[in-house]
Amino acid sequence: MIPFEGDFAQNYVYPLALGAYDATNAPPGFTVGKNAFEILADTAQPEFQGLLAQANPKHKKMLQSMLDQPSKPQLAAATANSAQLGAAVRAASPNQHFGWVCVDGAKQRLIVAFRGTEFFHDWLDDFDFIPAPYRPIPGRGTVHMGFQLVYYAIRANVRQLVQAQGKNCKEILITGHSLGGALCGVAAPDLLNDVADGLAPIVYTWAEPRVGHDDYVSFFNTHVNVCYRITNQWDVVPHLPPDLAEYEHEGSELSIDSGFSLDIVRNHVLVSGYLPGITRWNADHPKQATRHFGVRSIGMLAGQTV
């Protein structure tokens, strides 16, 4: 197992996950058109239309919630609560921006950062557990139909960007928050199967729900050897779909504590639920010299598969 890097999660990965929400500016340190490229939905794409025809209204709610997200996030740490979300304004027209593909040339690292949606309650309140065969690679298990539907809205574009921009890279970092975390879970094996097959994978997700059944999770874990799911212990989203519906998590969990709140929005949003939590985790797990891994956090292998 590659150890969990708390500083890496907080100082490198978190800004990318948060930056994925901003369609107007590239993540910090990157420049649009130079080393940052938009992931755009294409709802006219034939493969997507084929899946859409099979989807029920509950699945379509996930996609609509993504399209309703404004071009910049609206909730700040001081105002991230259910009341503020209820007053938030939806996009005037569909927001086709679903994140960024960035190139960190100094580290020879390709980055895929998927955004989620602040309107996660749209699908959270009416969630179903309907699975579907994993479409990108047949015979590899079943995943949640709604997550796969959202992925197919961007699949053609993200694969083209990864193939075009990853030529001089040695590894690929895939990250995302909430529904964007679910996109990581569906996209990673697909990308690594061909367009990114020469890149070493690193997956760090935030507030990711369960994506698939045990057959898909087993397939994922044999192909993605570095996958950490960062979960706030007070957040309900990582517990969906329930394990009673036979859904499982891939990779290893890294549990953080943002502080108790009864407000599901505050617990789930990156700025209020996850930045405070990962900051506290790093403070509680100081680095020290280890025999085999160099200077690392004493909680570096705290992750567990659940």
What secondary-structure arrangement, pairings included, does this model have?
Elements: H1 6-19, E1 36-40, H2 46-54, H3 57-68, H4 82-87, E2 97-104, E3 109-114, H5 121-124, E4 131-133, E5 142-144, H6 145-165, E6 171-177, H7 179-193, E7 200-206, E8 212-213, H8 214-223, E9 227-232, E10 247-248, E11 252-256, H9 264-268, H10 270-284, E12 287-290, E13 294-297
Helix pairs in contact: 1-10, 3-6, 6-7
Could you explain the architecture of this structure?
The protein is an alpha/beta fold and 306 residues long. It has a single domain, classed as Rossmann fold (3-Layer(aba) Sandwich). Helices cover 36% and strands 20% of the residues. The strands form 4 sheets. Strands 1-2-3-6-7-9-11 form a 7-stranded mixed sheet, sandwiched between helices. It is globular, with a radius of gyration of 18 Å. The two termini are 16 Å apart. The mean pLDDT is 93.
What amount of the residues lies in strands?
15-25%
Output the CATH topology.
Answer: Rossmann fold
User: Main beta sheet, described?
Assistant: 7 strands, mixed
Rough shape?
Answer: globular
* Strand and helix order: HEHHHEEHEEHEHEEHEEEHHEE
- Helicity range of the residues? 25-40%
User: Strand order of the main beta sheet, please?
Assistant: 1-2-3-6-7-9-11
The CATH class assignment is: Alpha Beta
Uncertain segments = none
The class by helix and strand makeup works out as alpha/beta
